[in-house]
Amino acid sequence: MVQLRRRGHRALALVRLSKDLPLVRDMAPARWLRRAHRLRHPFLALLVFTLATLIAPAALAHGELDVARSTPGPGSINGVPPEAVELWFTEPLEEARSSIEVYDADRQRVDNGDVQVDPADPQHMRVTLPRLPDGTYTVAWRSASLVDGHVLQGTFEFRVGQARLPAGAAATDGERPAPQAVALRWLTLLGLAVAAGWWLLGLLGARLTARSRRLALTGAAAALLADLALVPMTAYLPPGDLPRQSLGQAFGIMPTPWLARVGLDVAVVALLGLLALPTLRRRWRPLLALGALLTAAAVLTLTLTSHSAARESYRPLAIALNAAHLESIVFWIGGVVHLAATPRLWREQSSPALRRFSRLALVLAPVAFLAGAANAGVLLPLSRPPWTSPYGRVLLLKTGIALGILVLAWFNRRQIQTGLQRLVALLRSLRGEAVLGMGALLAAAVLALTAPPAPAQIEPLHLRFDLDDERYAHLFMSHPDTGNRDLTIWLSGPDGTPLPDVQRAYVTLRMLERPIDPPRLRAERQEDDRWLVPRAPFSVKGWWMAEVEFAGDAPEPEVATFVFLLPDPIFIGPEQREENDPAAEELYQAAIDRLSRLTSMSSFERLTDGSGNSVTTEFAFAAPNRLRYATAVGGESIAIGDTQYYRDGNGTWTAQPRARPVRFPLAQVNYYTNPQGLTLGREMEIDGEICRLVSFYAPADNTRGEVWYLWWVGTETHHIRQEAMVANHHYMITTYSDFDAPVTIDAPEVASR
């Protein structure tokens, strides 16, 4: 009798549930209520994680001369043409040998030619620009360091116009979009989704309630307010160090798609308000279709202010894929939000609207997933793992959310098919799907404002070796990696043009970390007086030496020695060793201990930038704070403590404060801290002493970028006799001598400050 009574109560409860779903809470167990109350926590955690991923700082300072930052940034998309190109370097610049040139797509120079090093900040160089039309521009820069005379050069591109990014968007890979811009973009997407879901459910025959209409109206109004808030955000929270603007100025630079979206937002809000009038009830269906079209058009404008629309290649495809992805996810998630928030819309389990939406979701979900994946394939370079960039990390997070939504959508479909007994589980699952859907919209907002990474391009390696009497040896490798690689070598004058007086050329390869010595290779003369060594055998990864001989009429051949690392860590990507060889670690520590006790030292440095430029410099060091150097092109400088003296072409000395005071040998020791992958190599003789080779990697810290080293360490004295180094724009071979020998470095007699 008791069991029959309990069954009767359950049947009555199910009948009441089928008529009035809000009673689900009354009949749900306390445990389910607690879980439903906690549904907000996954979303809050998702929000915190995503914003933390975006805001985390990533920049590291370099210890050598390099570009610290630039305006405009490399690869940036500028809605407003920049008035100047400005570069900030890590060391003071020598103005006479430093330059910036800007070229358009036709290789015509377009800058004003007024390049200048800032007198108040010798690390800052700029050149002004005329009003640039839309297009792609190339910046070619050249810098000469006042500290050590190193001359480096490089190029990067930026774009003007073509597709204005919204305020707060990241313009370059690695840059984080402004959190307030992400929040407004997400609010716009979420508000439009809530409105879109209401129109869709109405068209599918759901019994729309006043509560659901108010929810849709609230969402549309929130989207409108978020779009309007972009104007004061642009005016009062400009990116970087840009000055604030007036509201009128900010409104004047807002892109056309934004203006269209604001108008569409207003139309959607007005239509939702008018539908409260009883006189319009008979015309609901055409008005529902109109509202859905207006909302879809508003969503479409979002694709026109994103990085998909800013592409130069595959731009129509990227826009189409992004539009398909956003439209499908907005209508799908919007419908789920309404079903989860207002269960009266599907009061009966057999509601035709619920079943129709379930079938439609089986179409919208795959479209959203596949279009998003295809768009990511267009934007993300295939040669880089996705977790190596902020864009890729957020994309992986969004993919995980999307998979979770698909699982819940499949579960909900099963609940609808099983009948009345699963209503409580269905409501719970719908709310979980709605929470994940809002997370997916947040990830979509982040991705729309995050710059996708630039493709990792394999660049050729071009090393230059300074010989005597203004002659240079060149080694060129189109693909600096292991395997059988073509080498091109030639002898040139200062302009790089091959000299025709070479009669024979040879290359001798030696693997420096293993006993691998390929036979001597004879080069083949080419029509342009360069010499080709086809399929040179670089059989293993690591440090290699190439000894190049050029024979002509002179009794002795001209010989140049190149040392490089394969695969090249700058142009190809590093191959890091994780463990240290104990014997190499012991020899490294002995060399560091010996270096830290030096009172003086001399060095001869050959530096090339990997792009065919080079400089040769002689250094002298004296403890505790003195340095003197002279370059092959005539530059000379003396540094004592925190003061640097420079001699110009007329022999006049001037003085400037150093960014960092000279510390010898402490500064040299600090170059080599935190070594990784210490490896013991072969034995070679340097300056009459048998040396053992030690290679290692020094990760980036707050004083330097990442560096790869190879040492020749004396087995008796533990002096570092020779060093090869690879870093960004640096391929250097340095020979050390005169250890603890007497040296005098004094301030110049004629100096002005």
From TrEMBL:
Gene Ontology molecular-function annotations: copper ion binding
Cellular location(s): Cell membrane
GO cellular component: periplasmic space; plasma membrane
Domain spans labelled Copper resistance protein D: 353-447
TM regions (residue ranges): 183-203, 215-238, 258-280, 287-305, 317-340, 360-382, 394-411, 432-451
First-listed, main subcellular location of the protein, grouped into a coarse class: membrane
Keyword Transmembrane: yes
Keyword terms, alphabetized: Cell membrane, Copper, Membrane, Metal-binding, Signal, Transmembrane, Transmembrane helix
Taxonomy of the source species: Bacteria, Pseudomonadati, Thermomicrobiota, Thermomicrobia, Sphaerobacterales
Membrane topology: Multi-pass membrane protein
GO BP terms in the entry: copper ion transport; response to copper ion
InterPro entries linked to this entry: CopC/D, CopC_dom, Cu-R_CopD_dom, Cu-Rt/internalin_Ig-like, Ig_E-set
Domain CopC: residue ranges: 67-160
Protein name as catalogued: Copper resistance protein CopC
Keyword field contains Cell membrane: yes
